[in-house]
From TrEMBL:
Span of the signal peptide: none
Complete-protein stretch covered: 192 to 393 of 393
Domain (Macro) ranges: 20-199
Lineage: Eukaryota, Rhodophyta, Florideophyceae, Rhodymeniophycidae, Gigartinales
Domain of life the protein comes from: Eukaryota
Name of the protein described by the UniProt record: Macro domain-containing protein
Length: 202
């Protein structure tokens, strides 16, 4: 449950444009997206995104795996951040991960779709990409934010993730290699089919 004042504030600040379906760059951006199957903590990238909770103090799923793999110093640094609102992101060192940074973002809990879940999930991707860009990251890997404990429907979430990345690249340029990491072949195929649908739009 995100307060209304917070929602209207981030909506005002961030009216990120959407790339037109006819924009020729769309195909190119789609070709440059990668989907990998595996454990996100094993991936080498400038920034690894963590599907965190608002306290930023660790939990299960990706969050638990990231904290275990990075080591206890990650939690020490997270304690200093005083949490993070839903849809926003924070950056820390990555310690023992094969990455320069961990970007912690807090996805919305799925509550049926009428509580701004889509908008907030998009914000997670936008905030994370913006932080990565401001820290000169060339490669970033995302887990399927909100798709585990937070129960966001998978295909809907992957569509939002892909569109957010395309829109970000349309606005800021294609300077970052963006990958999506998921655990199963089934999940990987959902990403690929959402990408395919978008390729078909041109
Ligand atoms: N590598 C890649 N994907 C993973 C991994 C991994 N190591 N572990 C899980 N997934 P979740 P959420 C997939 O629950 O829904 C935590 O307790 C998983 O199959 O990690 O945003 C936090 O502290 C699913 O598709 O994140 C929060 O309280 C996706 O990653 C809460 O869970 C996300 O699942 C956040 O829930």
């Amino acid at each position: 449950n995100v307060p209304d004042w917070y929602l209207s504030e981030i909506k005002k600040q961030r009216r990120s444009r959407r790339i037109s379906p006819d924009d020729p760059r769309r195909q190119e951006f789609l070709e440059n997206l990668l989907v990998v199957k595996g454990n996100i903590t094993k991936i080498v990238a400038d920034a690894v995104v963590n599907a965190a909770k608002s306290s930023l103090l660790g939990g299960g799923g990706v969050d638990g795996a990231v904290h275990r793999a990075a080591g206890p110093e990650l939690l020490q640094e997270c304690r200093k951040l005083n949490g993070c609102p839903v849809g926003d992101a924070r950056i820390t060192n990555a310690y023992k991960l094969q990455a320069r940074y961990v970007i912690h973002t807090v996805g919305p809990v799925w509550g049926g779709g009428k509580h701004e879940e889509d908008f907030l999930l998009r914000e997670c991707y936008m905030s994370s990409l913006e932080l990565a860009k401001n820290h000169d990251c060339r490669t970033i890997v995302f887990p399927a934010i909100s798709c585990g404990v937070y129960s966001f429907p998978f295909a809907r979430a992957t569509g939002i993730a892909i569109d957010a990345v395309l829109d970000f690249k349309a606005e800021h340029g294609d300077h970052m290699q963006v990958s999506f990491c998921c655990f199963s072949e089934r999940d990987k195929n959902i990403y690929l089919s959402e990408m395919q649908k978008r390729k078909g739009q041109d």
